Amino acid sequence: MKRTVAILGGGVIGGGWAARFALMGWNVRVFDPGAGAEAAVRAMLERARAALPALYDVALPDEGRLTFHDTISAAVAGAEWIQESAPERLALKRKLYQQVQAVCDPAAIIGSSTSGFTPSELQGCATRPEQIIVAHPFNPVYLLPLVELVGSQKTDPALLDRATDLMTGIGMNPLKIRKEMPAHVADRFLEAVWREALWLVRDGVATTQEIDDAIRMGFGLRWGQMGLFETYRLAGGPAGMKHFIAQFGPALDWPWTKLMDVPELTEDLIDKIAAQSDAQSGHMSIAELESLRDGNLTAMMRSLKARGVAVGKILKDHEKTIEPEVPDLMAPMVTLDRQVPVDWVDGNGHMNESRYVQAMSEASDRFLAWIGCTPDYIATRGSWFTVENHVRYLAEVMIGDRLTATTQVLEAKGKKLKLFYRIECNGTLAATVEQLLIHVSMATRRAEAPPEDMAALTQAIAEAHACHGVPDAAGATGRT
Amino acid sequence: MKRTVAILGGGVIGGGWAARFALMGWNVRVFDPGAGAEAAVRAMLERARAALPALYDVALPDEGRLTFHDTISAAVAGAEWIQESAPERLALKRKLYQQVQAVCDPAAIIGSSTSGFTPSELQGCATRPEQIIVAHPFNPVYLLPLVELVGSQKTDPALLDRATDLMTGIGMNPLKIRKEMPAHVADRFLEAVWREALWLVRDGVATTQEIDDAIRMGFGLRWGQMGLFETYRLAGGPAGMKHFIAQFGPALDWPWTKLMDVPELTEDLIDKIAAQSDAQSGHMSIAELESLRDGNLTAMMRSLKARGVAVGKILKDHEKTIEPEVPDLMAPMVTLDRQVPVDWVDGNGHMNESRYVQAMSEASDRFLAWIGCTPDYIATRGSWFTVENHVRYLAEVMIGDRLTATTQVLEAKGKKLKLFYRIECNGTLAATVEQLLIHVSMATRRAEAPPEDMAALTQAIAEAHACHGVPDAAGATGRT
Predict the structure, then answer these.
(1) Shortest CA distance to A431 belongs to which of A368, A350, A347, A343?
(2) Of A44, A142, A350, B377, which sits most exposed with the smallest number of CB within 10 A?
(3) Which of A4, A129, A27, A8 shows the shortest CA–CA distance to A71?
(4) What pLDDT, on a 0 to 100 scale, did the predictor assign at position A32?
């Protein structure tokens, strides 16, 4: 039974929420009276389909149903989460909550995407103030996991815990903010940088392009994986944070920022910024820029996922909750079900030959874990090393395609294990791989018979799979 | 003939410069009177060896010689670039320049790593003020390409151009700052964020860990690939930058930052930050954190390099300048020479089986480009698609290992091309691959004979390679 979310407001942020919930298997009910809102949200979901599933090495849950509704009461019917992403006008938001609370489930959580207002401000005229919290995400919402959760003194901590669990369930990384404050935490940093940038452009110190490069070629990369304090801890060296503050602290007294002063937003300054931004990015449409950004973010996030750190840890932890269950091993089984991510493509515009082997290697890892060769087993006992692969490439595979693999055990004898993979792409056979492995001791990293229980299991599987016959393409490995 | 750089000051920044120059083939002469400086710089070079070469898919130039000198005059002898990374005390830096200028080549460029001082301040008491500029890098200097180049009114633009070329040559991305200003550009942003962060910690809104997460799970990732303005251009949607400023501009009047006010750095505040930072990162040593950071940055930067955008474009452009020249194709030739990057390892702690194929695929791309199958040819005519691979895994390969491949043409007949690769790791045969390719039309994506000149060339190569015999392991492909 799918869960239901109501999305109030279908702009860049609301649409991003809708896309993430839908891709995580929730039914999504959208209310946005604006013309073109439905088309925009559907376009957003389309973009998200090309990006979010690629962060995972398993298939996501079946997509939820996306529907659009003319009234608030229809949109919030059955919703256990109601996300408001209306324009940043307090009166408008308050009026919306009154309408919502007249019809919604009193147990539902109403989250606001507000960048600036505090929960106390939002709760001002509400029927049930304790139902409303800040749940502030970051664009693109379907990729970036950060969501700032903020309650007021009227907020029940249990409700925040429930919100945390629910957000974690759709792959977000909720950050509970300890005290309410205008702009919460992250946007205060953005606002500070924005002010300084306006001065630098106004005073002709740097253009928008130069400022962007000053960010993305240096500290932006650092901040994609460690934040401010951990980065500075490193700058301080072995002497630690105290040393760093002693060294860097004095700069606080120097006039290095102009930040409480706000440059006047004259027509001239606005034109200057717009013209510089056009010169920098005007050759690409917004849709092209979005696609570029999503591809970049996906690739960077996947690179951290492979390492299991920073945002990659959030992804890995979430992936564990949607891993497939162990199937019946006594018949050829599905060992891979995933989308082809953007970084698997090569100069020919299709999935690179090495990625077929990577997909097979992922399938192999999963099968081996099922027969007991888990990370723990590898750390303490042994593993299976590939000694030979024979790959036939039968069809091209493109970004976003759904890739599945079935594994058949051809042979399990002593230290040897021979597996055969059929890799399908959208239902067509795209490749076969014959893989020859030997069991090794991880102490010596040399061949060694597997433990008796593992050997007995693999032999039983090989015998059970034998009735499925030897594939025509088999037999190319183990000859030398 | 190697070029020479003098490094004055061997701390985190000076050591990073030394490591980058040495790995890019420069002889590096270090002056740092501090105890332990030599050991620290050597350790930095060791870390850099594990990271910087992994950003490139070709081998870097032969490493330059790293030497340590007791006097400034010995260190700057023969140096065409002199990089000063002394502590941030103006009087100290000025005195150093006087000593340097008494002995250095007047045509050499003296770059200062200063975070805060302007070039005019640095040039104050100099013999030849026009010789001194700001060249401000970002930690770790051996990975992040950004360097802010700043001159004063006394600086010859031609000298800044020369500095730009030289920095580009060692893989940096020089940003010429248009007007001198305390803290240049990027550090003004860092200072603004730092001030805001101190308030948030002091006021108990968030801990150092929470602030770091607020950065690295959200906007930090965005800023690793697009900067502030391009990101906001997207937020503004198709209406563009003007719309965004109109929408977001009003927030400038709200009290979202506390930035000109500086919180007093009381013992209490320093202790609070240090304690929170210990709780967050204290379980890892600085060396472990550095290794974690370098691995993360390398992986993220490589993911953008594969896409050829943002920092990845800097890397690609630089790589083109150190690409190997086309060898004699009429003998089996070296088609790959590279270091194994951090992201090629798997759960067994060694290079994953798919990465052998990726290395082979890179070698294949290079060979195919040499016979005329260039990106331009692929875009307009045809390409070679792999239909079968037979891989024998003969030795484990670890992160940082040097990987080379030689390619032998076994067969070139009609649409078919059969190649054989010997992949060596540190001189040991680690794998062989037999690769069967067919030529395709990129219009139909179906098999089609290659153009006559390409066919003639591949046949001539196959005939010339025939005298090297057929490898024992050959013959596993093309049977089905």
Answers:
(1) A350
(2) B377
(3) A8
(4) 97
pLDDT tens track for B172-226: 999 999 999 989 999 989 988 888 888 888 888 999 999 999 999 999 999 999 9
Q: In this structure, is residue A290 part of a structural domain?
A: no
A179: nearest CB among B205, B357, B358 = B205
| Structural domain contains residue A480 | no
Q: Is B374 within a domain?
A: yes
Tell me which chain A residues have a C-beta less than 8 angstroms from the C-beta of B200.
185, 188
Interchain proximity B254–A144, CB inside 8 Å: no
Contacts of A222 in chain B (CB under 8 A): 138, 144, 220, 293, 297
Of A225, A296, A354, the CB nearest to B225: A296
Report residues of chain A scoring pLDDT below 50: none
CA distance B105 to chain A (A): 31
Final residue of a domain: which of B125, B150, B184?
B184
* A413 in the same domain as A342: yes
Check whether residue B34 and residue B151 sit in a common domain.
yes
| Assembly ipTM | 0.89
CA distance B467 to chain A (A): 23
| Residue that finishes a domain, picked among A167, A184, A201 | A184
B313 contacts: CB under 8 Å, gap ≥ 6: none
DSSP A15: H
Residue A234 to residue B479, Cβ atoms within 8 A: no
Residues of B in contact with A210 (CB under 8 A): 175, 177-178, 185
- CATH number of the domain within which B405 lies: 3.10.129.10
DSSP string, A362-390: HHHHHHHHHTT--HHHHHHTEEEEEEEEE
List the CATH number of the domain containing B247: 1.10.1040.10
B292: nearest CB among A146, A309, A353:
A309
Q: A190: closest CA among B251, B203, B137, B263? A: B251
Answer whether A354 sits within 8 Å of B352, measured CB to CB.
no
- B132 and B83 within one domain: yes
Range of the domain at A142: 4-184
DSSP string, B289-348: HHHHHHHHHHHHHHHHHHHT-THHHHHHHHHHHTPPPP--TTS-EEEEEEEPPGGGB-TT
Spell out which residues of chain A touch residue B249, defining contact as CB-CB under 8 Å: 265
The answer as to whether B249 is a domain residue is yes
CATH number of the CATH domain containing A44: 3.40.50.720
* B365 vs A252, A347, A358: nearest CB: A347
Residues A16 and A84 in one domain: yes
- What is the reported pTM? 0.90
Read off φ and ψ for residue A339, nearest 5 degrees: -95, 150
Same domain (yes/no): A152, A130: yes
pLDDT in tens, B396-420: 999 889 999 999 999 999 999 999 9
Closest approach of B167 to chain A, Cα-based (Å): 14
Residues of B within 8 A of A303 (CB-CB) are: 299-300, 302-303, 343
Using CB atoms, pick whichever of A241, A295, A476 lies closest to residue B390: A476
